[in-house]
Amino acid sequence: MITPVVVANWKMHKTPSETESLLSEIIPGLREMKAGAEVEVILAPPFTSLPLAARVLAGTGVALCAQDCHWSEEGPYTGEVSARMLAEIGCRFVILGHSERRELFAETNRRVNMKAASALFWGLTPIICVGEKEDERASGHTEMVVEVQLKRCLSELKLDKGQRIMVAYEPVWAIGSGRTPTPPEVDEIHRLIRTELLATFGEERAATLPILYGGSVNPANAGPMLALDGVDGVLVGGASLTAAGFLQLAGLVRAAGPQGEEI
Ligand code: PGA
What we know:
Number of helices: 11
Structural class: alpha/beta
Radius of gyration: 17 Å
Number of strands: 8
Shape: globular
Strand content: 5-15%
Bound molecules: 2-phosphoglycolic acid
Largest sheet: 8 strands, parallel, barrel
């Protein structure tokens, strides 16, 4: 059984003091809705807010996530942060291969693959993002694009006992645009991703790995996505930047209940 997941990707928003103030609204709200046991809540503030967020979130059941990491443990990589560094400050997740990194910062599937291996080694769960661009969808290449991204990002990854990955399907054209695919379109791609996970990790492991939908998720459109059997949660950008929006989404994820087969 997969516990439903909500991930807040704050991107390059919120200074440490703004982080503290947003968390002071989010944490009591989550406590009130008793989200803890029934929803896996994951917050990804920017790097500069991570140490403070780690302190505030300690003991709350809310997990801390970084928005990227380097694939090496340490080295002459100016401006980079390693999975080892993130693990030491209490991060448990890292978003990898986000389309903004792919588009604006030359992220490649090969690098996502190396980063994921390093994240797993240091005890972090990678949340690997895949998704097609608008022209790729228009030309009927969505499935091929997602399949190739996944195969390359997951290449030779092994999951030891207790290790997990999550995959987020985020159509690039839906991110920050207010547009979303229809639930049947999401369903189709989530099935393809599940099939790919089965081929990579075997049936038993793959059935436990959450597949999230992301791309302009908000309280008004999340319901139909979350109602799909193949959608185990959501990765939220803009709508996670206010406590009201995020708490509403966490409530919807909780209401959607666990998805997937009991194993
Ligand atoms: P959005 O961002 O919800 O603002 O579209 C989602 C994401 O980029 O993960």
